[in-house]
Amino acid sequence: MIFENTRAFAQQLDSQDTLHHYRDEFYFPKVNDKDVIYFTGNSLGLQPKRTKAYIDEIMNDWANLAVEGHFYAEKPWWDYQERFAEPLSKIVGAKPLEVTVMNTLTVNLHLLMVSFYRPTKSRFKIICEEKAFPSDQYMFQSQVDFHGLKPEEVIVEVKRREGEHNIRTEDVIAKINEVGDELALVLIGGVNYYTGQVFDMKTITAAGHQVGSYVGWDLAHAAGNIKLELHDWNVDFAAWCSYKYMNSGPGNASGCFVHEKHHNTALPRFAGWWGHNKERRFKMEPAFDPIQGADGWQISNLPVLSLAPYLASVEMFAEIGMDALIEKRDRITAYLTFILGEIDKEVSSSFEIITPSNPAERASQLSVFLHGEGRSLFDYLMKNGVITDWREPNVIRLAPVPLYCSFEDMYNFGQILKRGILEK
């Protein structure tokens, strides 16, 4: 499609967008009495309007039923998480038994590493990407310390080539083969939080397995954003947060995937009451008998007030389907790329998009170096109704989330960006 940098053209794209009405399903913050242009769904998604009804339902059941709500609420609390299995499995490309919801992201990664990071004298190394999200880095370091090993001898980072912003798949494969028989675990972010690069998870997973390693993925920026086929890719495990692209609210519950091939193995795990055989849970038996499937990795009674907003969101995803989301995601991201290019021609500064240009290697994020600009431009954008994200030294991250961003938003952003540069 040949794009145009005009309001009329952006409005025409919105009129053709089959998802455009979902924009009305969300609350937008306001600046200067106008809805903001919201580019930070990669940090915290907007609140769906339907969320409140899901929370109110639990509050009413708690008021009217108290403890009996565990069994007699409209959505009984004791098996509340089972409602996620079908819709979540479609979002991440899994079988329903392979997914569950519990805890928060880094907690779940720690718990999954109990099962999948079992260092031996000869096989003990972990491969991750350079500039992984800091929480992942801290997790790796503390896990290695816990096992009495030295992080500098265990953690192997795959680095970017000199002068490049993204990591090449062939370099990941080469590092896996280089570490070889010493490799215990590959654990990488499926979408890099800083650059927005989407990793080739299928190829990397196969390479890790080829040398005898487990392979897991941190899908914080991937779930609800890209096409995932975790089961078919033979991924061992994965975890993701729900408050970014899936709009479940700040710090909310995490999803987990454990491939079915591990459900009946002797893998160790930290156990708790809620992972015990559901039909025998209230017999208070002393020996742990895990639920079949990913639910068997649960530990504690689930916080249903926290799960309610997530359920509201995954049911919206079920209505839409990932294919429709991805179709709009690719078009609106391409239009934003075009707008940046057009504004670049009209100002003295220059913009360098460090996110891969190949649609297969990017999702709903463009990370942009603002050459010749500094923090003052970011501040201008924020004061003029563009909610975006600043990363040192001078990068802004723009996430045109297809559920609630419009093509006219992209046009308006370009005009505000241009004024912010010309008026300084």
Automatic annotation (TrEMBL):
<comment type="pathway">
    <text>Cofactor biosynthesis; NAD(+) biosynthesis; quinolinate from L-kynurenine: step 2/3.</text>
</comment>
<comment type="similarity">
    <text>Belongs to the kynureninase family.</text>
</comment>
<protein>
    <recommendedName>
        <fullName>Kynureninase</fullName>
        <ecNumber>3.7.1.3</ecNumber>
    </recommendedName>
</protein>
<dbReference type="InterPro" id="IPR015421">
    <property type="entry name" value="PyrdxlP-dep_Trfase_major"/>
</dbReference>
<feature type="binding site">
    <location>
        <position position="301"/>
    </location>
    <ligand>
        <name>pyridoxal 5'-phosphate</name>
    </ligand>
</feature>
<dbReference type="GO" id="GO:0030429">
    <property type="term" value="F:kynureninase activity"/>
</dbReference>
<keyword id="KW-0663">Pyridoxal phosphate</keyword>
<feature type="binding site">
    <location>
        <position position="221"/>
    </location>
    <ligand>
        <name>pyridoxal 5'-phosphate</name>
    </ligand>
</feature>
<feature type="binding site">
    <location>
        <begin position="133"/>
        <end position="136"/>
    </location>
    <ligand>
        <name>pyridoxal 5'-phosphate</name>
    </ligand>
</feature>
<feature type="binding site">
    <location>
        <position position="106"/>
    </location>
    <ligand>
        <name>pyridoxal 5'-phosphate</name>
    </ligand>
</feature>
<feature type="binding site">
    <location>
        <position position="218"/>
    </location>
    <ligand>
        <name>pyridoxal 5'-phosphate</name>
    </ligand>
</feature>
<dbReference type="InterPro" id="IPR015424">
    <property type="entry name" value="PyrdxlP-dep_Trfase"/>
</dbReference>
<feature type="modified residue" description="N6-(pyridoxal phosphate)lysine">
    <location>
        <position position="244"/>
    </location>
</feature>
<feature type="binding site">
    <location>
        <position position="105"/>
    </location>
    <ligand>
        <name>pyridoxal 5'-phosphate</name>
    </ligand>
</feature>
<dbReference type="InterPro" id="IPR015422">
    <property type="entry name" value="PyrdxlP-dep_Trfase_small"/>
</dbReference>
<comment type="function">
    <text>Catalyzes the cleavage of L-kynurenine (L-Kyn) and L-3-hydroxykynurenine (L-3OHKyn) into anthranilic acid (AA) and 3-hydroxyanthranilic acid (3-OHAA), respectively.</text>
</comment>
<dbReference type="Pfam" id="PF22580">
    <property type="entry name" value="KYNU_C"/>
</dbReference>
<comment type="pathway">
    <text>Amino-acid degradation; L-kynurenine degradation; L-alanine and anthranilate from L-kynurenine: step 1/1.</text>
</comment>
<dbReference type="InterPro" id="IPR010111">
    <property type="entry name" value="Kynureninase"/>
</dbReference>
<feature type="binding site">
    <location>
        <position position="243"/>
    </location>
    <ligand>
        <name>pyridoxal 5'-phosphate</name>
    </ligand>
</feature>
<feature type="binding site">
    <location>
        <position position="273"/>
    </location>
    <ligand>
        <name>pyridoxal 5'-phosphate</name>
    </ligand>
</feature>
<keyword id="KW-0662">Pyridine nucleotide biosynthesis</keyword>
<comment type="subunit">
    <text>Homodimer.</text>
</comment>
<keyword id="KW-0378">Hydrolase</keyword>
